[in-house]
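### Sample
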Amino acid sequence: MDRFDLRGKTAVVIGGSSTLGGAMAEALAEHGARVALTGRKAENAEPVRARIESAGGEARCFAVEATSKADLERLLEEVLQWSGDAGGVDILLNCPGVNSATPFFDITEEEWDRIMSVNAKSVMLACQIFGRHMVDRGQGGSIIHLSSASSAPPLSKVFAYSASKAAVNNMTQFLAREFAPARVRVNAIVPGFFPAEQNRAILSEERVAAIMGHTPMGRFGDPKELQGAAVFLASDKASGFVTGTLLRVDGGFGAMTI
């Protein structure tokens, strides 16, 4: 029995146009899931869709503002129409994220609201809409959030981002408890340092040196190294008794002290 077989499953990847979200979406498709990819513009996710389909998988791109409840409700309807006889959404992967290195005393209310909205509010809304769908459907499901090594303890220079990802961790464990009776599992992947568009601006030479000094494996992660964790958490056969877990994929960053 292939415990990582996702054939017959429909996955929605919020932020599927991103570097990390796209890599994990490709892995879900590789293991048989039909994958709905989202971005603010549908064409933003086209490169990921093309890679999935060239490898023999099935995917479609959807334009979604992840912080809009109306957009997410529309997304659910469109995915249900697209999936047809499959019957519903089985996997939700929440990957939207923005970052900033603004010094604490210079953070504006607008910047705080933007980061909290994209990184935390979007997760709450997606879980309300897709979580209710999974609970009401009565066939279980898997919700996976993308957290951060900065969620706990928080890293320097990224105050709002750290607070938003700490909120994601809290929501993960809260909802794992709430959804468990319906066999809907809620977990988070806690990645270490994977160079992506959202963090390139804060990766100065000095900061890179500090990161490498605190990472026992002494290197950045490759986005493909998140794929196994995503497939594991998506599969009921592989992780059916796993919920409320914050799964670190960080090269040992979280284990390092002195």
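The chain has a mean pLDDT of 94. This sample (SDR family oxidoreductase) is used throughout the tutorial notebook.
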